[in-house]
Amino acid sequence: MARQIDYGNLMHRALRSLIQEVLQDVADHGLPGAHHFFITFDTQHPDAKLADWLRDRYPQEMTVVMQHWFDNLVVDDEGFAITLNFGDMPEPLYIPFDAVRTFVDPSVEFGLRFETQESDDDDDEEDEDGDEAEDDDAPRQDAEVVRLDTWRK
C-alpha cells in the first residue's frame, strides 16, 4: 500500500500541543481575565492518577473546572498535574493529554473535542464489500477528520 499522510493523527497531536501550551502559560502566569477551562478526561486511562473515591464516582470520564481555585499546576510533555478542590477536599490529579476528551474555555467560546476511532467507526459503518480487509491489521488512530457528509442535505 502506498504511503499516506495521516492528517487525523497530525491534527490530533497539534491540538494536544495547543492544550499543553495554554496550560503551561497558565502555570507560569495564572489565568488571565475571565478565562476558565472545563476539561473532560477518561478516568480509565492507564496513566490518569486520581483518588480511588473519584474514580469510583466517575468510572468512565470526569469533567474538572479550572477557574477560581487550583494549585500545583505542573505541565509536562505527557500531561499535567493539578490539585483541585472537591467539596473542601483538595485532591491531586494527573491527567495525560491522551486522556483528554474535551477542552473548553467558555469565556471565549473555544472548545476542542477528541473522538477515538473506536467510538466513531465501530458504530457508524461496516465494511460493505470487504475491500478494506487488509486495513484490519493497521493500528487504530486516536483522532480522525470530521466527515462533512453528516451535515449535507
Automatic annotation (TrEMBL):
Top-level taxon of origin: Bacteria
Database matches in Pfam families: SspB
Annotated spans, Disordered: 113-153
Biased composition (Acidic residues): 117-137
Record field: compositional bias (Basic and acidic residues): 138-153
SUPFAM superfamilies: SspB-like
InterPro entries named in the record: SspB, SspB-like_sf
Protein's UniProt name: Stringent starvation protein B
Source organism of the structure: Frigidibacter albus
